[in-house]
Design brief:
By secondary structure, the chain is of the alpha/beta class. It folds into 2 domains: about 160 residues, Thiamin diphosphate (ThDP)-binding fold, Pyr/PP domains (Rossmann fold, 3-Layer(aba) Sandwich); about 130 residues, Rossmann fold. It is about 40% helix and about 20% strand. The chain has 13 helices and 12 strands. The chain has a 7-stranded mixed β-sheet with strand order 2-1-3-4-6-5-10, sandwiched between helices. It has a 5-stranded mixed β-sheet with strand order 7-9-8-11-12, sandwiched between helices. The model has no long low-confidence stretch (mean pLDDT about 95).
């Protein structure tokens, strides 16, 4: 059984802490959920529980960064990108501080705590913040890689992390921040995905293959800066596009891909798979993914539609 993403994150924090003495960790009284508690046990003098005070925590991180530390700031994604947004924008990003904002329980993975705890707009919010690198982990291997590689980025980074386990992905290229990863080759349609939707997209691709539709699946785990080259090449190769994300269809991965297509004059029918501009409810995680149409079945429907529209005039 694969480990939960939050457990992988916590263990990697400890490993990085041993390697980087300047790494410090802050948490908003949810360390047992974010698993930053593992770092606390190993390095109590470098761990700060600030209580349920996300804005103050993010402000403190900016100060620590200016003093030469590398803070990892932890709470649920829904709160770090809302309550913590003002200092993240006005202090951390404005001063281009080396701060890592770790948004735990991303998407719908905080299944039973209610709509206020689901983060379905966090990517859209953080995309608009200058200097911010945005990374959405798609499996355990990638969590470790993006955390380690982020230590070389001088500015702020936002990690979107799931509470859940994710199936391991087989990649044609090594994980590198800023570069997309091809997960499956295909000639009929490209499915750009991130996070849990990568495994859903691969499931969809296998079922589509039985229908004679060969889908190229690309993991665009770096939402910002997006890999424009792989987007353009994939669009030109397949001539039809699906974007699949555990996020609102407004402002997230789909919008980022459309921006590249418009800027590079590479046009193709595109269908977005995502949460349809609504608040979500509590429930079992797989049931929520199905209800809000962010599952393999929804990707299949979108791919059929995109392929059907190939060759039609774009007005």
């Amino acid at each position: 059984m694969e480990p939960a993403i939050r457990d992988v994150y916590g263990a990697e924090l400890v490993r990085l802490g041993k390697e980087y003495p300047e790494l410090v960790v802050l948490d908003a009284d949810v360390s047992s959920s974010t698993k930053s508690c593992l770092f606390q046990s190993e390095f109590p003098d470098r761990f700060f529980n600030v209580g349920i005070s996300e804005a103050n925590m993010t402000s403190m991180a900016a100060g620590l960064a200016k003093a030469g530390m590398v803070p990892f700031v932890n709470t649920f994604a829904a709160f770090i990108t809302t309550i913590g947004l003002l200092p993240a924008r006005s202090l951390v990003a404005y001063m281009n501080c080396k701060v890592r904002l770790a948004g735990a329980y991303g998407g719908l993975s905080d299944s039973y705590d209610g709509a206020t705890h689901h983060s379905t707009d966090d990517i859209a919010i953080m995309r608009a913040v200058p200097n911010m690198t945005i990374l959405v982990a798609s499996d355990a291997v990638q969590v470790k890689e993006i955390m380690r590689q982020s230590m070389e980025i001088d500015g702020p980074v936002y990690f979107r992390l799931s509470r859940e386990a994710m199936p391991p992905l087989s990649r044609q290229e090594p994980v590198k921040i800023g570069k997309g990863c091809v997960l499956r080759e295909g000639i009929d349609v490209t499915i750009f995905s991130c996070g849990v939707m990568c495994s859903q997209a691969l499931q969809a691709a296998e079922r589509l293959s039985a229908e004679g539709i060969e889908a190229r699946v690309v993991d665009l785990f770096t939402i910002k800066p997006i890999d424009a080259e792989i987007v353009e090449a994939s669009v030109k190769q397949t001539g039809a596009v699906v974007t699949a994300e555990e996020h609102s269809v407004i402002g997230g991965l789909g919008a980022a891909v459309l921006d590249v297509m418009a800027e590079r004059d590479c046009y193709a029918p595109l269908v977005k798979v995502g949460i349809q501009d609504c608040f979500t409810e509590s429930g079992a995680y797989p049931a929520l993914l199905k209800k809000y149409q962010v599952d393999a079945g929804s990707v299949i429907k979108a791919a059929r539609e995109a392929v059907k529209r190939k060759g039609k005039p774009i007005v």
